[in-house]
Backbone:
């Protein structure tokens, strides 16, 4: 699958941009000439931004924002862990103090905190997101807003030297470093030695994560406050924090076209299990259409989130298979 065709479909219009009141007039401030050549190819690239050490993203402001999310019982927007990458938890009514203690001990706790959809409760993040879209559309010289089902504006806060393990994401991502430093090791999603069709298929069936092929080098992007890196869709990456507490802001664009491809990958997963060698998305229009139709048929009618759009079909299938196993 070529990422250069990510923009093809357009089904759900995003809401109109809000009136801009932010002090920020531009988010993307510069792309160096050697990085600019990578933009039209949809490859990873580094750029400069205006939000380095932004006051609304200082640790005290992040603590206030976290407290507000917890007070409003938005537990699905606060995820955290202490002492190792495999211990991520969703917050809940019983973990409010634990989350706040985690923030207060970031220097030493070996901790990681993710606050999602922060634009839903902080107007300024919503405005910054719209300014970012303006910059992105100028950079790519095309309409991007209408290709996006949902923008995930996410904050990542982590302890010194923390590591985020190798993984892939569904969204088209732009990671802006606000405080501290980190190195993002990015690998080419279009290289079949790096991402095999089976890896994408497994990802959309929530199978164990992709395995790194250590014989293929990636690109290490060192980012400091005011610097950022573009992650193409499905580009595997792992992240190493620097010696300070790190704060990063991520714009994750969930594209309609990727949601459609996800359903083709899900059917391909099942076909491969049956011994077939299925065609990847965008190689055959009619096959894609049949596969998407099959998943849509078993998906929830009412889809309120990205998770419903992409995963409700396979969730139902799993339930049916479990029931069949129990009753046979
Ligand atoms: Fe990621």
Residues:
């Amino acid at each position: 699958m070529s990422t250069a065709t990510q923009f093809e479909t357009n089904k759900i219009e995003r809401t109109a941009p809000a009136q801009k009141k932010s002090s920020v007039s531009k988010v993307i401030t510069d792309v160096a000439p050697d990085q600019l050549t990578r933009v039209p190819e949809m490859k990873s690239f580094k750029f400069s931004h205006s939000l380095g050490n932004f006051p609304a993203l200082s640790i005290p402001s992040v603590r206030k924002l976290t407290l507000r999310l917890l007070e409003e019982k938005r537990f699905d927007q606060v995820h955290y862990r202490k002492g190792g990458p495999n211990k991520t938890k969703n917050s809940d009514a019983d973990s409010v103090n634990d989350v706040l203690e985690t923030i207060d001990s970031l220097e030493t706790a070996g901790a990681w905190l993710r606050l999602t959809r922060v634009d839903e409760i902080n107007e300024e993040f919503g405005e910054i997101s719209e300014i970012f879209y303006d910059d992105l559309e100028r950079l790519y010289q095309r309409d991007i807003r209408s290709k996006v089902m949902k923008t995930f504006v996410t904050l990542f806060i982590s302890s010194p030297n923390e590591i985020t393990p190798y993984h892939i994401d569904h969204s088209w991502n732009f990671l802006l470093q606000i405080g501290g430093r980190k190195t993002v090791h990015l690998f080419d999603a279009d290289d079949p030695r790096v991402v095999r069709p089976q890896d994408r298929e497994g990802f959309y069936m929530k199978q164990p994560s992709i395995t790194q092929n250590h014989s293929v080098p990636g690109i290490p992007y060192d980012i400091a406050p005011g610097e950022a890196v573009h992650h193409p869709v499905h580009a595997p990456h792992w992240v190493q924090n620097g010696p300070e507490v790190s704060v990063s802001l991520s714009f994750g664009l969930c594209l309609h076209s990727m949601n459609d491809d996800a359903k083709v990958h899900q059917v391909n997963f099942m076909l491969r299990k049956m011994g077939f060698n299925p065609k990847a998305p965008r190689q055959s229009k009619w096959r894609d259409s049949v596969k998407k139709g099959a998943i849509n048929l078993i998906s929830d009618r009412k889809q309120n989130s990205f998770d419903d759009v992409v995963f409700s079909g396979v969730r139902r299938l799993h339930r049916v298979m479990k029931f069949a196993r129990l009753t046979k």
Notes: The radius of gyration is 20 Å.
